[in-house]
Amino acid sequence: MKIKLLYTCLILLSLCIHSCNSGSKSPGSSQEAKQAPLLESEYLGVGEVFLRGKELAGQEIKVKGIVEHVCKHTWKRFKIVDADDSAFIKVELGEDFPTLDASLLGHTAYVRGKLVPVQMDAKAVEAWEKKTRENHKGEEETAHFKEEIAMIQEIHQQIVNGEIPFHMALTLEATSYEIR
Amino acid sequence: MRSGKKSLRQWLRELHRDIGYFAVGMSLVYALSGFFLSHKNVFTATRTESAELSLATGMDLSEFRETMDSESDVDLTHSRLKGEYISFYFEGGEGDYHVPTGRVQYERYFRRGLMLFINQLHLNQRKGWVAVADVFSFLLVFLALSGLVMVRGRKGFLTRGIWFMLLGFILILIFIWIQ
């Protein structure tokens, strides 16, 4: 009899904890987003966001782009690009999002989030290269690493040569996203 | 002769037994996913299929796109020139075309559903699972503590168990010390 009572208490305790938790929904769960209808016209292309970077800074915006890279270190970041351009926006998912996987590559991502532009001068780009080298230790021979470093060095060179005054890196802190 | 009243130790034994049975599934989820996550470069959440093609050499971007459309089973969604290569993407995969040799290598990624699912449970990324994880953590505490006093006599806690317990703590201390 007592043991039944104890088990009943355990079940009640678990239900109680569950009800306490149900109030805190994950803000950007993609599973929820999948149910909502999506208006393609509401989403800006990556190129448009670059053009309007300053105006949109700090705002919550909607952007669509093709997933070109998924971060293998965190599985919580990915890059989106326009179909015919190489400029990318880095999308960062918060803690509440499930991890991603490589099968997302090549799909179109519809992301909603806060746009964070970072203006980088030559020194900042050097620091970026250093950080990238640290983060990718042991991967120096991979194509992805070489490509990343080459891209950063090219940007650095462009700034040093005066071709561009600075580099604008765009990050989107996602509140929701959907893959189609 | 058995008395009708159960001792505390008997209670703990019965609870330990039943909670132990109950926790088998969750223990396996955490044990396996913990192992997968610790070795995530080996136990990836996706299965990869690689393929190769041989195309004409020296194509530019638009020629390459047209050729891939007609000669391969992939629909390109994005492609761009990267030095001697054209990198391309399609839904669920990516690849490269080596312009001077015409060699195309590409990979398709397929989700390992079960592995992805239990990893997400481990990381509390499934809605509502945090409640189960909380209950499970308390159950583990109970199992750990009740396990200490379940066995009496020569192989009980004070004569044998304490040494094993200390060994476990020492293992943790070593890691604190070497950090």
What order do the helices and strands of chain B follow?
Answer: HHEHEEEEHHH
- Nearest-integer average pLDDT of chain A: 81
Helix content of chain B: 40-55%
Low-confidence stretches of chain B: none
Number of helices of chain B: 6
Number of helices of chain A: 6
Total DSSP E strands of chain B: 5
Computed over alpha carbons, the radius of gyration of chain A is: 21 Å
| Terminus-to-terminus distance of chain A | 54 Å
Looking across the biggest beta sheet of chain B, what order are the strands in? 1-5-4-3-2
Largest interface: A-B, 41 and 37 residues
Oligomer: heterodimer
Query: What form of chain A results from the Cα inertia axes?
Result: globular
Question: What is the first-to-last residue Cα distance of chain B?
Answer: 56 Å
Strand order of the largest sheet of chain A: 1-2-3-5-4
Helices and strands of chain A: which structural class?
Answer: alpha+beta
What is the CATH first-level class name of chain A? Mainly Beta
Short description:
The complex is a heterodimer of chains A (180) and B (179). Chain A is an alpha+beta fold.
Plain-language structure description:
- The complex is a heterodimer of chains A (180) and B (179).
- Chain A has one domain: Nucleic acid-binding proteins (OB fold (Dihydrolipoamide Acetyltransferase, E2P)), CATH 2.40.50.
- In chain A, 38% of the residues lie in helices and 26% in strands.
- Chain A is built from six helices and five strands.
- Chain A has helices at 2-21, 30-35, 46-51, 53-56, 122-135, 143-160, and strands at residues 60-70, 77-81, 88-92, 108-120, 167-179.
- Chain A has a five-stranded mixed beta barrel.
- In chain A, strand 2 and strand 3 form a beta hairpin.
- Residues 19-34 of chain A have low confidence and may be disordered.
- In chain B, 53% of the residues lie in helices and 21% in strands.
- In chain B, helix 1 (8-22) packs antiparallel against helix 5 and helix 2 (24-38) crosses helix 4 (113-122).
- With 179 residues, chain B is of the alpha+beta class.
- The model of chain B has no long low-confidence stretch (mean pLDDT 90).
- Chain B has two domains: 10-42 and 113-178, no CATH class; 46-111, no CATH class.
- The relative contact order of chain B is 0.13.
- Chain B is elongated and about 85 Å long.
- Classes of the chains: A alpha+beta (180), B alpha+beta (179).
- The interface between A and B is large, with 41 and 37 residues.
